[in-house]
């Protein structure tokens, strides 16, 4: 029995290794289109590889998987984050959990994962064919089973041969990207990091977490999460959309009360120099100047009702205009791909071509930042390994 894995990558190697462990007699070949293998794993998580998450802060998978959460809920019954954690530790990769529930190799180096995969591939005699691009099933016609793990295809060209076989394709668009904001005053805050809630006004799309201000606009986990949930919406609007930032988690009434307290306790101090909310000083100064404009240099005792309303509004609903994706086009994930309608939800086998399977990002499954996309890769790959070996 022979299996061809088209695309390699994290899902491909994980599938190949599990196939060999479940069915040692299976011949497995990985077809990698580039000369380098596991390049995406190498750079993930800042070179540390955020390989999964504890999911402790996740009450519903839709929170972390904008697309594919229903399918993953089913598949997690067979292989979930607990199983992935145990798998890596069992295969010689100790893991650690961060305070934010992200899971990394204890070595804090993605090569711990890469070396594990390559070592096991060598041990199990898995053939790796580099610089080998598969463009049709004829290229792998000598194999009994074929699994496609080619990852995302931002321009869709890698999906054409699969579309020609009858598979429905969800149009691929970028996900997990940063926002370009044209605001010269904002650029003065470059490098500042603070916790916020970011929202797309007029929608239910929102995300919380650290926001990083850059020389081109906004980045950080809050923005990356929001870009994932809003990926299709923003693509449809040509990446031109209003953005709202809630800088504080206090209620409107709590803010009004605190502002009025300063009028009494700090009457002669300037608004810009005394910050009652614990915000970083340069951020507070920026927000006061944005809210009050020419009145930003007033003292607390000069604060009037209109000033209070403007300050509360800027702190709870500060608005910007997204002018596009980050100029570096550094998207790490693509949403879209093989429609989940085109596969068997229990085995991930194609409904159009027997013994053809799909795992990882080539499917219309994607998650927010935090190790969730790798977990989807491990789960879908393991599901296919079980499905193929069940045929013996």
Sequence-ordered SSE layout with sheet pairings:
Layout: E1 2-6, H1 9-22, E2 27-31, H2 39-47, E3 52-53, H3 69-75, H4 81-90, E4 95-97, E5 102-105, H5 111-123, E6 127-129, E7 145-148, H6 160-163, E8 169-175, E9 179-181, H7 184-187, E10 193-199, E11 206-213, E12 217-219, H8 221-229, H9 231-236, E13 241-246, H10 252-265, H11 281-292, H12 305-316, E14 318-325, E15 333-338, E16 356-358, H13 372-389
Parallel strand pairs: 1-2, 1-7, 2-6, 7-16
Antiparallel strand pairs: 3-5, 4-5, 8-15, 9-12, 9-14, 10-11, 10-13, 11-12, 13-14
Helix pairs in contact: 1-5, 1-13, 10-12, 11-12
Summarize the structure.
With 392 residues, this protein is α+β, with helices and mostly antiparallel strands. It has 13 helices and 16 strands.
